[in-house]
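Quick question, first post here. What does this chain look like in 3D?
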Amino acid sequence: MALASGALLSLAFPEPSLGPLAWFALTPLLFLTRKVSLRRGFALGFVFGLGFFGTLLIWISIVGYIAWALLIVLEALFMGVLGSAWAWLSRHRSAWARVSFLTASWVTVELVRANFPLRGFTWGQLAQSQHDLFFWTLRPAAWGGAWLVAGLLVAVNALFVEAVVSRGRGRVVAAGAALVILAAPLALPANAADGPVLRVAIVQGSVPRDFTGTFFEKELAITQSHARLTKALVPGEVDLVVWPESSVGLDLQRASVVADLVASAARSVQAPMIVGGNLDIDRALYKVVAFQVSPQGEVVDVYQKTHLVPFGEFVPGRDLLGFLPILDQIPRDAVPGTRHKVFDLPTGPVATVISFEGDFGSLVRKPIAAGGRLLVVATNTSTWKSSWASAQHVAFSQVRAAENGVGVVHGALSGISAFIEPDGRLIERTGLFEETTLVHPMSLGSASFYARTGDWFAYLSLAITIIGIAAVTRPAR
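> Answer (accepted):
Ran it through. Tokens below.
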């Protein structure tokens, strides 16, 4: 039952995207771990985590089943800790205290997962399951971030459990409270952008499949594809052009042919561009960056990615793990930047993050709080082929839009690229592995309460979890 409960929850996420499943998929786990021993609570929570992450992240197996197994075991351990916490907190005599403590402990575990180890991993946050219910359950994100959305979903699951285990009036009250919480987001205003409008073009040049040439030739072909599609745009009819992460895989400061392609594309379309690329430091190190290119073809600003992908863009402890053959796929380490960036464009300030960074609400809100009024997420998910990964990444951008109150331009090298409204609504998207462009007018928004104030609900949940553990421990002693 615990394994099935986890697998059921995964179906609420893309691409099945059966969002309402998240409203009750936790209830089997909560029944099973209610008032059991801490050891049994941990075991059941761990098995739940295997079912959940094992299904949700099956696409990791594309790079190897060992990598997939290690990751899901690591993430399942967090669910084991949650199972133990609920086994202990469910002993409290008050139903309302039990619901509050469980809600807080789930959010606390999401907070810890998002930060540890190796600066965290956010895939599987409950709010991501609600990406296609933008008009409703995502609205609280503008006030308390994805944390608040997750808290409401857990509270609903906990109240359903209380409705079953309670008797008489308590059962009716618990069920009614669950329905009230589900309906409550409708009372909140939807995010809307009412600032200046700019016409944005996403250029999705894709990657050549089954390419047999050299690394240089492949990277050059990708850049050429983006330049060709950009030059097909009507000059003067777009205000910003976005090229995804890795669209310029060769260092344009060293490869003049690449620099010429980027410059000529900008001059042709007569608009500023944000271009995802790499800069070499030496043979062993490089930077993952986004360039701001002027309409005259000059690089006027650069953002260096601050949150890198472990075992994707760098290898932690490379000296110790160098004997593993799989690490030959990551011959160089990227060096992280230290500051967020807001590009000052003629049409207004635009915040930029790169790929994995868009999965972290705590990170994305910083450039929005610093003045960004439109968010560009430049990404490359081509490694994951036609799996769920690309759709799950777009869902994160939908959550980021709802959190921050600004529109999102999600540009992906091989798809899915998309335009997203500030309420999380997907306006327009591409398919996978298409060479195409999307053009859409995007209004500049305003930073939400969450963007301005930060992760207050997550840290409040941490405090409530500590209080809950203490409250249950003291009577037991």
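The chain is about 45% helix and 15% strand.
The chain has two domains: 2-190+455-476, 197-447.
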